[in-house]
Design a protein that fits this description.
Chain A: Belongs to the succinate dehydrogenase/fumarate reductase iron-sulfur protein family. The complex is a heterodimer of chains A (236) and B (590). Chain A is α+β, with helices and mostly antiparallel strands and 236 residues long. Helices cover 31% and strands 14% of the residues of chain A. In chain A, helix 3 packs parallel to helix 6 and helix 6 packs across helix 9. The chains are: A alpha+beta (236), B alpha/beta (590).
Chain lengths: 236, 590
């Protein structure tokens, strides 16, 4: 695939009345590079192309985007995973307002994260050393704490598209469960009552797009199921 | 009057990584009007990439562990130019800072007794080097930096810290007396440039590994705080000291934690030989990083490298078994599959020493106060300016940082700076306001870029800079090569001063950010090059073919680079810890 056809979403609010797709021919020299490398090559041709990036190794969550229809991180997605018929279509994460080109306004996403009170709450005074936690208790946090807030999941979720103000979304709920599951957290009932309404959790329809796209292999749907169980148990 | 909008804070913290967030947390709790200004959303900062852990004598793995042993290792690891008062402070305060992180919710891995899991890391010993390998690095699997950064961000949310996310600090603003009274900053989303007024300005801008072509560092690590401080005329300390991490993934540069060797992995050459046994008979693969990196290069230069070009070695992990890999090193399994196309449970990972960490930086005392030196060599505090984390040089790392000490540095000295600033604000500090011309001078370079009409392209100049540094200032150095490097950098400086920013738009203009970053890379590269050329000895990470030995008579000193004259001076190392005896320089073997 030496001259890759890339079609990329462009929109500069200062100069463009509407977004458009721009075509690039990218010479990858036959190598199976990452999508982020392709973006860098395109930026050398057109320095105005805007996208976020930082760690370039899949841990900072900056470069979530939609690549040939699927959300993922550009820095850990090799062309061989997404390119079909030598064509690559790059769009910003769906459902969030576009600031410029591939850069979206993450405000709504962060607001939902903040809403679940994403910090440990423990009303007992801390000991002089660490709070103890058994390896088994700690194991319950695996698959939860690793979230990098890239928003690939929430912006792939139809329920979040419809109700981004009211439905917490898979990323926020995964973090909510990360604290509900933590043996050191004592705010379980407040956390649950904060989620009791018909929208916050219950708008999840189990579509599982979140699971399909999570670049860290996490499973928000399972976490949401656990929260539902806790809410139901709490109600009875 | 300036037509710039101004924002006023008691303290402004530039940088949203571990040290900045820790400082901010302290100040937010104190109720001071504080803001964190970060060019990326805080959890995208490079702290997130730290893997193996945070080294600290919390006496969990070994109930008899002692912070003094940790201090000894740190001073020895730094080849005796770490400041002993600072190492003492870090190692003794460390446990408090680590327990605080745990209380904030950091999901540390655990031992069966419920305490924090600790793993062995390089350069660690018990009983001042006499008691064998210690296991002192507190870990959350191999994602400790991620866990730490998110925990700090979360607790800043809890304490209502003000965030200016995706804002870029351009330059420091100094008043007529030379005090730092704020900065010029740009909102990346709108392009608006503002004057941030502040009684305390904290540079927590991290490292600058992007001066090298091959680095484990994030793309954002462009030494912005170092550049700002140098342009403001302040000196940099020990800038020749760059750590090359032994295990960057060959080709990609991504980091593979030292924790792999801590868990029992080891390096092999093309003959399958565990070569570290020859270079460091006792510590073997867990010798200091500088020692391991040099040994790897020796193996490669002597024809025992792996692969078609013989230009890397292998890190063998398969003998650890899938269970240990899955439990303790899950991130490494992911990274090596993605970037090396290798499953470490079956095959070894190709690795090569890769630029990783800047030991040097803005000289500070243990309170984070920036320091400069007068004509007669006396230290002076720079009013209003603070630094912590990788951007600072306290110095706890000396000529070579030990694995796991960077995360400890971040939280201990971020916290210390926060506490000190709170006290100073309570005591009441007032500086002269900046004048119109003070602000103008801090606006100079952004104006220069905005008015550029032609010239060379930013990405090409950046690539050239990185090549020069890689070629002339790598693991092994020598005068001839470094002189060439210094010359090329001098020319490059002129070309960068005339380079072109084609895109002048305002909304999320990443090209403008990259232009401003390039200026900073230039400053860091020049300070590094001149310091490396002038330090005529080999110590820690600074290895010269032409001066292969450590020279304690002339160079048991910090180097201090002055930007105005481009001169390198010397500064005394602190050998006066408060509560323990001085660790006298010894021959450093592992």
């Amino acid at each position: 695939m030496s001259n890759l056809q890339v079609s990329v979403y462009r929109y500069n609010p200062e100069t463009d009345s509407a977004p458009y797709m721009q075509e690039f021919q990218v010479d990858t020299k036959g190598r199976d590079v990452m999508v982020l490398d392709v973006l860098h090559i395109m930026k050398e041709q057109d320095s105005g192309l805007a996208f976020r990036r930082s760690c370039r190794e899949g841990v900072c969550g900056s470069d979530g985007m939609n690549m040939n229809g699927k959300n993922g991180l550009a820095c850990i997605t090799p062309l061989s995973d997404v390119v079909k018929n030598n064509k690559l279509v790059l769009r910003p994460l769906p459902g969030l307002p576009v600031i410029r080109d591939m850069v979206v306004d993450m405000g709504l996403f962060y607001k939902q994260y903040e809403r679940i009170q994403p910090y440990l709450q423990n009303d007992t005074p801390p000991p002089a050393i660490e709070r103890l936690q058994s390896p088994e208790e700690r194991d319950k946090l695996d698959g939860l704490y690793e979230c990098i807030l890239c928003a690939c999941c929430s912006t792939a979720c139809p329920s979040f598209w419809w109700n981004p103000e009211k439905f917490v979304g898979p990323a926020g709920l995964l973090q909510s469960y990360r604290f509900l599951a933590d043996s050191r957290d004592t705010a379980t009932s407040e956390r649950l009552s904060n989620l009791e309404d018909p929208f916050s959790v219950f708008r999840c329809r189990g579509i599982m797009n979140c699971v399909a796209v999570c670049p860290k292999g996490l499973n928000p749907t399972r976490a949401i199921g656990k929260i539902r169980e806790m809410l139901l148990a709490d109600a009875t | 009057m300036s037509n710039l909008r101004s924002l006023t804070f008691d303290a402004i913290i530039i940088g949203g990584g571990g040290s900045g967030l820790r400082a901010a947390l302290e100040l937010a709790k104190s109720g001071k009007k504080t803001a964190v200004l970060s060019k990326v959303f805080p959890t995208r900062s490079h702290t997130v990439s730290a893997q193996g852990g945070i080294t600290c004598a919390i006496a969990s793995d070994d109930p008899n562990d002692d912070w003094r042993w940790h201090m000894y290792d740190t001073v020895k690891g730094g080849d005796y130019i770490a400041d002993q008062d600072a190492a003492e402070y870090m190692c003794s305060e460390g446990p408090k800072a680590v327990f605080e992180l745990e209380h904030m919710g950091l999901p540390f891995s655990r031992l069966d007794n419920g305490r924090i899991y600790q793993r062995p890391f390089g350069g660690q010993s018990k009983n001042f080097g006499e008691g064998g390998q210690a296991a002192r690095t507190c870990a959350a699997a191999d994602r400790t930096g991620h866990a730490l950064l998110h925990t700090l961000y979360q607790n800043n949310l809890k304490n209502d810290t003000v965030f200016l996310n995706e804002w870029y600090a351009v330059d420091l603003v100094k008043n007529a007396s030379g005090d730092v009274v704020g900065c010029i900053a740009m909102c990346i989303e709108t392009g608006e440039v503002v004057h941030v007024k502040s009684k305390a300005t904290v540079l927590a801008t991290g490292g600058a590994g992007r001066i090298y072509a091959s680095t484990t560092n994030a793309l954002i690590n462009t030494g912005d705080g170092i550049g700002m401080a140098l342009r403001a005329g302040f000196p940099m300390q020990d800038m020749e000291m760059w750590q090359f991490h032994p295990t960057g993934i060959y080709g990609a540069g991504t980091l593979v934690t030292e924790g792999c060797r801590g868990e029992g992995g080891y390096l092999i050459n093309k003959d399958g030989e565990r070569f570290m046994e020859r270079y460091a008979p006792n510590a073997k693969d867990l010798a200091g990083r500088d020692v391991v990196a040099r040994s790897m290069v020796m193996e490669i230069l002597e024809g025992r490298g792996c692969g078609e070009k013989g230009d890397h070695v292998f890190l063998k992990l398969d003998h650890l078994g899938e269970e240990v890999l899955g439990k303790r090193l899950p991130g490494i399994v992911e990274l090596s599959k993605t970037f090396a196309h290798v499953d470490p449970a079956k095959d070894p990972i190709p690795v090569v020493p890769t630029c990783h960490y800047m030991m040097g930086g803005i000289p500070t005392n243990i309170h984070g106060q920036a320091i400069t030196q007068d004509e007669s060599g006396n230290d002076h505090i720079v009013n209003g300016l603070f630094a912590c984390g990788e951007a600072a040089c306290v110095s706890v790392h000396g000529a070579n940082r030990l694995g796991g000490n960077s995360l400890l540095d971040l939280v201990v000295f971020g916290r210390a700076a926060g506490m000190f600033i709170e006290g100073a604000l309570n005591a009441g500090i007032e500086y002269l306001d900046a004048s119109e011309s003070d602000i103008e001078s801090a606006m100079k370079r952004i104006t220069r870029w905005n008015e550029s009409e032609g010239g060379e392209s930013i990405p090409e100049l950046k690539a050239e800079l990185q090549d020069i540094m890689q070629t002339s200032f790598g693991v092994f150095r020598e005068e001839k090569n470094m002189l060439e490097g210094v010359d090329k950098l001098a020319q490059l400086r002129g070309r960068i001063a005339n380079a072109h920013l084609p895109d002048k738009s305002n909304a999320f203009n990443t090209a403008r950010v990259e232009a401003l970053e390039l200026d900073n890379l230039m400053e860091v590269a020049e300070a590094t090059a001149i310091a490396a050329l002038e330090r005529k000895e080999s110590r820690g990470a600074h290895s010269r073919y032409d001066y292969p030995d450590r020279d304690d008579v002339n160079w048991l000193k910090h180097s201090l680079f002055f930007p105005a004259t481009k001169e390198l001076k010397k500064r005394d190392v602190n050998f006066k810890p408060k509560t323990v005896d001085t660790f006298e320089p010894k021959v450093r073997t592992y």
